[in-house]
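Trying the structure run again after the queue cleared.
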Amino acid sequence: MTIELINTGAELLVGRILNTHQQWLCRHLTDLGYEVSRQVCVPDEGSGIQAAVREALERAEVVITTGGLGPTSDDRTRDFIAKLLGRKLVLHPPTQDWITKYFASRKRPMPASVQVQAMIPEGATVLPNPNGTAPGLVIDAGGKCLILLPGPPRELRPMFRDSVVPLLREKFPLATKFLCHTFKTTGLGESVVEEKIAPSLQPLVRQGLEIAYCARIGEVDVRLAARGEKAGELLTQSKEIVTNLLGPVIFGAEDDTLEAVVIRLLTARNKTLAVAESCTGGYIAHRLTNVPGASKVFLGGVLSYSNAVKQKLLGVTAESLRRHGAVSKAVGKEMAEGARRRLHTDYALAVTGIAGPGGGTVKKPVGTAFIALSESKKTVVQLQYSPVDRETFKFVVSQRALDILRNSLLTAAPFAEKVP
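Done. Tokens:
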């Protein structure tokens, strides 16, 4: 079974918005055992959309489009595809009612233009959209399956999971058994991860195991997949090998994020956390508060960008600032201990560093960061050096800080001081 993906939107082609649909949909389809054979991006105009859909339907059994289902003048995907297929647009009363209720529940005036979203190609099946007003659509196009999804990710992704996945499994069941598992790792580069596990996995690769690596800033995914009657056996053996060889650098699986894992561990152990951030500018707190339920264990933090705030709110001493500087082991230690005392938590993370591009010295170059973790019995400080751009620096420092906490929650003595 072949699948093609068509992303519509001029904003994607001019680089104003990152096309995350391609990556997200292809990944999830692959994890389900389906393969995307082609992906294209076209502007919001009739000839481009119609040509892309026409050509895709000649090759693929399933064609998925994204975008162009909204109420504005450039949302024309529904119209252009209806014309291509020779279908009339007809009113869908349940969608019309939903749009009215959607605006009423939010106490917002309803522009008349939004009702155009209730006009659907004749014969189409409507996919409900609880997160917006533009429904998804499924159209039988001469025996081919054409699926139209809305553009906003917060609408597209739940619709894909809740409506499209069951449809694909029902109408296009896999010919052979398919299983996959993704390990989430942090702390090692992609090549190092491969060197550690690839030799031991080679016998299983020869039997049909598939291995893929995906490197991002601060993380490497290891994806294992197998098909056929031996899929279960191959996946079980390969998971055991990877777990044994990578051990503590594995922080989760599938769609886990490091911050979500940390929140789960804190919750399971009934422990609380505070943060004191300088060089990361609140980024650690931002990541933690993106996790539902974080408020049970994450009590708050101090964004101590200036020395005065470090002293006044965290109790950092003037002597430490004078002798060692704001970016130092001593100040990081006092920041963490001050945050833990002031917010009355079990743990506190603190970071202080030089994000750049200026401000570095020979002894403390740009990219230097001190990460401190304080708990009741001890405070430990690590030195990290990440000479990258400012935004990346903030992420990798936050990543390392969260991983230090994760390891501390997992083991009694997970790491040693690395500051000379």
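The domain at 258-410 is CATH 3.90.950.20 (Maf protein). Worth checking whether this holds up in the mutant runs.
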